[in-house]
Specification:
This protein is of the alpha+beta class. It folds into 2 domains: 1-85, no CATH class; 89-258, no CATH class. It has 9 helices and 7 strands. Strands 3, 4, 5, 6 and 7 form a 5-stranded antiparallel beta sheet that branches. Strands 1-2 form a two-stranded parallel ribbon. Strand 4 (168-180) and strand 5 form a beta hairpin. The radius of gyration is 25 Å and the shape is globular. The mean pLDDT is 83.
Length: 283
């Protein structure tokens, strides 16, 4: 497998479309929190590169992106020779499964079925519900704490963190691991997020969101007709633990409640405060 750099051909007509999309906030452009900064320009350039690449290539193109808005924008173009996966491990998972049955359409249908077998809102017997995955993760108290700071930075980090929100679960992708006899081994990522705050060096307030990513390993019956049956839980393990900025954009992304708006002092409070100020006499 070889990689090559793709340089999009930028012409006046292309920039006209980009500007038009920016004006009307066509995805991947989006509104910024302060309505002053343009959000989405780089993603729009990436989108143009994908469109041009797919127009000149006859074989299937694989695009790696975890950006939901960019993915929505690309899918709206109805490109026939493009596969979008979040990460490289999702792509390699599909390659492993293609060795079992070399039909791309079948592989995508099989992954969709496996995803529903792990969790579906209308599927009461899905693995997530019957094996109480949420409760299993909630019991991993240490894994749901902020990670320890790097030794050289520990003096700048809070020694203790106070939790500001409840945990919110986000389901990641399901990957095919391998076939083991009559069983297929799967791995599904489950992320748990919560906001924390703490006093750091010189009493500086730090506000962060902790993201703990778990790998849930499970198996199903090896049915290469596209059915996923007889699911069984195997194990759950922590993959990564990271801290990101606590802002409204990240809170929305991880389904956390919006940050509380600071309350302004009321007029009666200001009146009482001014009355209690010491009087001065001009000389």
């Amino acid at each position: 497998m070889a990689a090559r750099r793709f340089t999009p051909k930028v012409k006046q007509a292309v920039w006209s479309r980009v500007v038009e999309d920016a004006i009307w906030r066509v995805p991947p452009f989006e509104h910024s929190e302060d309505s002053k900064h343009e959000k989405g320009f780089r993603d729009r350039v990436v989108l143009e590169s994908v469109l041009q690449s797919c127009s000149i290539l006859t074989n299937e193109t694989v695009f790696l992106s975890e950006d939901g808005l960019l993915k929505t924008a690309i899918l709206s173009r109805n490109l026939k020779n493009l596969l979008i996966v979040p990460r490289l491990e999702d792509f390699t998972s599909r390659v492993r499964l293609l060795k079992e049955k070399a039909e791309t359409e079948w592989v995508e249908a099989f992954f969709a079925e496996a995803t529903r077998a792990f969790y579906a809102k209308d599927k009461l017997d899905c693995l997530y519900s019957k094996e109480k995955i949420h409760e299993r993760i909630a019991e991993r108290f240490e894994d749901l704490q902020p990670p320890p700071a790097e030794p050289l930075l520990s003096i700048l980090e809070p020694q203790t963190w106070e939790k500001q929100t409840e945990e919110r679960i986000t389901l990641g992708t399901t990957q095919f691991e391998k076939r083991d006899g009559e069983r297929i081994l799967w791995k599904t990522d489950v992320m748990s997020a919560a906001a924390f705050s703490g006093k750091a060096f010189l009493d500086t307030l730090q506000e962060k969101i902790r993201i703990s990513t778990f790998a849930v390993n499970w198996t199903s019956q090896a049915n290469l007709e596209g059915e996923v049956k007889d699911t069984k839980f195997e194990s759950v393990a922590l993959k990564t633990r990271e801290m990101i900025s606590d802002n409204n954009e990240n809170r929305t992304k991880w389904a956390l409640p919006a940050k509380p708006v600071p309350q302004l002092p009321t007029l009666p409070f200001l009146g009482d405060y001014l009355k209690n100020l010491p009087s001065t006499t001009a000389k």
